[in-house]
Design brief:
With about 260 residues, this protein is of the alpha+beta class. The chain is built from eight helices and ten strands. The strands form two sheets. It has a six-stranded mixed β-sheet. It has a four-stranded antiparallel β-sheet with strand order 4-7-5-6.
Length: about 260
């Protein structure tokens, strides 16, 4: 079973394997994953590859003007800076997950485009649900939406009367401090927590809105357990190859029974 973490970061050997998925971490012991977690983990690599293909198609539609009016203008303004490649090369890639209060969530990948939170924001954007649904099976889409932490475009446009920001339930960004949650301003690299005075919250949000390019993300909890999964992709498909977690001393442990 997974060990309860203290305040250690992701083990350096796992970080190296995240950056270079051909590297295999040195391990001290073997552990087993709970079956419900394995059920989430096994299809995740395949679903990420499906999402990559769908993301490229979404960009193609945007370039062709398929999204007209205000939705099209919004998407052009917030178009991700990192585009997924046309094809993922055969071989390994890695996904890093952290344990959140709601369950395990995908937080980083060796696939560089996935580390741009604009893609998570687009995946969760209600207006794009029909587009995503037309590009992948509903079960895959819902699982990806479950596994990807929410992210938001800090857009200064006012919402229509009676509307709220999806996933936050507030009518405007001024309501963020009242949620009592922890966020991060992605481009600024700044944490927003309940320890921050209200005036600093307000100033940080207003400055971010003024830039027109900031994203609000949900960071992993402090001292969250982590899991690195390596998937192998070839002509036969994508499969879970190996996985590692960390013990209470911060040492990498191989996941057995895959």
């Amino acid at each position: 079973m997974l060990a309860q973490r203290t305040d250690m970061p992701v083990p350096e050997s796992l970080v190296r394997s995240l950056e270079d998925p051909t590297l295999t971490p040195e391990t001290q012991a073997a552990v087993e994953l709970p079956k419900p977690l394995l059920k989430h983990l096994r299809p995740l690599g395949h679903e990420v590859i499906l999402w990559q293909s769908a993301a490229r198609q979404l960009l193609a539609w945007l370039d062709k003007g398929r999204f007209a009016g205000d939705p099209g203008a919004f998407l052009q303004r917030w178009k991700p800076r990192t585009e997924p490649p046309a094809e993922t090369a055969e071989g390994p890639f890695t996904l890093l997950l952290h344990e959140h209060p709601e369950g395990w969530r995908l937080t980083q990948s060796s696939l560089g485009w996935m580390n741009d939170p604009a893609w998570a924001a687009l995946l969760h954007l209600p207006a794009l649900r029909p587009a995503w649904s037309s590009l992948m099976r509903a079960s895959h889409l819902e699982h990806l939406r479950q596994m990807l932490p929410q992210a938001w475009f800090l857009d200064s446009a006012a919402l229509p009367p009676g509307s709220v920001i999806a996933g936050l339930g507030i009518p405007g960004w001024a309501g963020l401090p009242g949620l009592g949650k922890r966020f991060r301003l992605h481009r600024a690299g700044r944490e927003l927590t309940d320890q921050l005075p209200a005036g600093e919250w307000k100033a940080a949000v207003e400055q971010s809105l003024a830039t027109g390019e900031e994203l609000l993300v949900t960071p992993p909890p402090v001292a969250a357990a982590c899991l690195l999964a390596r998937f192998s992709r070839n002509k036969g498909g994508t499969r879970l190859e190996s996985a590692w977690t960390a013990d209470t001393a911060g040492r990498a442990c191989l996941v057995a029974g895959l």
